[in-house]
Structure formats: structure tokens, C-alpha cells
Amino acid sequence: MENLAKVQEDVQPVLEYGLIAGDMEAGFAVIIAGERYEAVEAVSCLIRPEHGDTVLLSFAATGRCYILSVLERPGGKLASKTIAMDGQVNLHIRHGGLNIAAAETLSLTSEQKIAIAAEDLGIDARKGTARIEEFSFFGRMLRSQVETVTHIADTVDTIIRRTVQRLTSSYRYIAEHEEIQSASTRMLVEGTLTMQTQNTMHTAEGHIKIDAEQIHLG
Hints:
There is one protein chain. This protein is mainly beta. It is 5% helix and 17% strand. It has a domain at 12-78: CATH 2.40.50.140. The protein has one helix at 2-11; strands spanning 14-23, 28-32, 35-41, 54-59, 65-72. The protein has a 5-stranded mixed beta barrel with strand order 1-2-3-5-4. The radius of gyration is 36 Å and the shape is rod-shaped.
């Protein structure tokens, strides 16, 4: 029992307060009571230490020094803080949800890929901007309700099996050429159909039929 107690005393860590004096090749330089030591971050130390921080240190029996946590930082509570980790990091919430809120800017940045998967996705913003070099959308149904749409594009290629538009008024202004190719075309106008051109040419391989109560030419 005495030997066991002696072993336990030897392995008990010693806690100290220290001051971060700068970075070193394998960790940080810390000052304790005027003495300089080399310390490394413990895995549980989430806030990355910076020069001038007051930290809690743990000295192992082997002489290894660990930074357990950052206690104080010059600048107080509003000073900038960095959470830095190496390797793969997973955050798993077993029960309940996760809420991330920021009083100012919230940014997500990845050098490779950002993936979002959910049963229901909602985005609510007063103003938004998206810059995507290549964009693909696959969906079964799309509903859109907007008041004004401004679309500027150099080239648009659209392949649709069927499209239906119900408009109150429609205007198209084409500066150069417009061409329509179809197997058949039908136009139904309840009121007046007005066509004004500089030159008009109708060509048919079969018949051309004009049927009206009155026809005025000239």
C-alpha cells in the first residue's frame, strides 16, 4: 500500500499559473515566477493561446508541461479568440439541436467543399448575393414567388419538356434577331392582333388560308 501511495504521489500533476511569452517550435514559451518553460496545448484547450495570455498549466511527473486553458487575455472579454484544431473534427449532438448565433458576421469558409444535408432547409434574409462559377440544380418541383426579377446573362440554354406561363402582361425587346422553330404553332388572340414590319414574307409549301368577315388590302 505504501508503494502504491508513493507511485500515486509521483504521478500527480502540479498546477501553475503562467504567462504566454511567445511561440516556440513545438509549442509555447511560458513564464512562471520569472522562469521560462516550454509548454504544449492540451487537447481540451479549445482557445488557442496568444502572447500575453494568462494560462493554467499542468506539470506532469515526466516534466512535460501542458496548457489546460486560457484564463485571461489582454483586452478583456471582447478580445479576439481563435479555436484551432488539427485533424478531423466531428461535432455530434445526440439529443436536441444546435444553434449558432452571431451579433455581427457569420462566415463559413472551406478550401474544398461545404455540404448541407437536411430534411427541411430554410433560408431567410433581407438581402443576398451569390457568386457561383458553375451551378447545377436538380429537383422535382420548384415554386417561386417574386415581385421583380432582373436577369442579365451572355448566353442562356434551356431544355424543358413542357412549360406553361400565365401572365397579365408580357413585353419582349429584341435588338437583333429572333427565330422560332416548331412542329406547329398556334396563336389565339381574344382582341386585336397587330403586326407592324418593314417587310413581311409568308412562304408555305401548301396552302395559305385567310378567313374573315372583311379583308382590307392596301
